[in-house]
Design goal:
alpha/beta
């Protein structure tokens, strides 16, 4: 009789330990850092790869943990009741209820979950192999329960539409200290998210402020104009200013001048020296245009409206400035007390 009570008590202790294991595993694998696990996995850490695999199937993971945790808790409560009744008779039911409540709350919930939350990354790595075996063993039952729950509770169609808002919230949380350094980081990261919502029209240089070249001008006039300009690329028009026929790069012009005997006698017309213009609609988002610049290996585009009329130009620098702020170089001219407007004018 005494030996059976000791065996029952030992079994009860093991069940509480198992319950603590399930509770701590749930907390650790929920709070673990995805970025940290990804870095370790890239370095060849097998346990980190197991953690990523478990987190990839969150429904199966949580389902298996809940099944195992509830099973050991119910079994532990039943054994504790039998143990208490054997010691105290019918009054043992009350003692079993009070004792198991205290033991499960303190030793199977609060303590293990607190520890797992504080040391989520390291604990997740230690517990991952054991939990992988448990998940595999309970997967048939977990799949069956998940199928049943999906029939009762329909999936939320809007569950994947708030990722951007969630990311914005995380960015804001990083800058709660309210210092200039953090504010710069928040502004930069938020600007990256805004690229998909801002069109090139908002950042382009308006046609009134664009240095354009008339292909019919005299070669020496064109050369003088280009040399006095702070820009390296100039749209070239022929006839009307809306008729953009190419983009002249200073390097190409100087190379052509170097081949000519005099400036007056260029080996080919300026229109032929200029490269083909890259036209884009003014409604193009900055994110799409940034990707297009990267794929085409371009830095300069001519912006047109829905009718094909010349509206302005946009460069890779314009898009980068939308992310990191103004980038001044040695050729930028600052006018004290004046600010540039979107239509090319200046406001004092």
């Amino acid at each position: 009789m005494l030996s059976s009570l000791w065996l029952l008590a030992l079994t009860l202790v093991l069940l509480i330990v198992a319950s603590a294991l399930f509770s701590s595993a749930e907390t650790a694998l929920t709070a673990v850092s995805d970025a940290r696990m990804r870095q370790l996995a890239n370095q060849g850490n097998r346990r980190a790869k197991v953690v990523e695999k478990l987190r990839a199937d969150r429904e199966g993971l949580i389902g298996s943990i809940l099944i195992g945790n509830n099973a050991v808790n119910v079994l532990g409560s039943a054994l504790a009741t039998s143990f208490a009744i054997a010691l105290f008779g019918e009054g043992g039911l009350v003692w079993a209820t009070i004792g198991m409540t205290v033991l499960l709350v303190v030793f199977a919930e609060v303590l293990p979950k607190t520890y797992a939350f504080k040391y989520a990354d390291s604990y997740a790595l230690r517990i991952a192999p054991i939990l992988q075996v448990v998940v595999r063993a309970l997967s048939p039952l977990s799949v069956g329960i998940n199928l049943l729950t999906t029939q009762i509770i329909r999936p939320n169609p809007d569950s994947n539409e708030n990722h951007e808002e969630e990311l914005r919230g995380l960015i804001e949380l990083q800058g709660r200290d309210d210092n200039a350094y953090e504010r710069e980081h928040i502004a930069m990261l938020s600007s990256i998210l805004d690229l998909s919502h801002i069109s090139v029209e908002a950042v382009m240089t308006h046609r009134a402020a664009v240095s354009i070249i008339n292909a019919d001008d005299q070669p020496e006039d064109i050369l003088r104009y280009v040399l006095n300009s702070p820009h390296t690329r100039h749209p070239v028009f022929s006839g009307k200013s809306d008729n953009i026929v190419g983009v002249l790069h200073v390097r190409d012009l100087l190379r052509a001048v170097g081949k000519a005997e005099t400036v007056m006698i260029l080996p080919e017309a300026v229109q032929n020296i200029a490269s083909d213009a890259y036209f884009i609609p003014e409604t193009t988002s900055l994110f799409d245009q940034l990707q297009a610049f990267r794929s085409r290996r371009e830095h300069f585009a001519v912006v047109v409206d829905e009718y094909g009329d010349f509206r302005g130009i946009v460069t890779l620098e314009d898009i980068l400035e939308e992310i990191v702020g103004d980038i001044d170089d040695e050729h930028d001219i600052g006018l004290a007390g004046l600010s540039a407007q979107a239509d090319g004018s200046w406001l004092g």
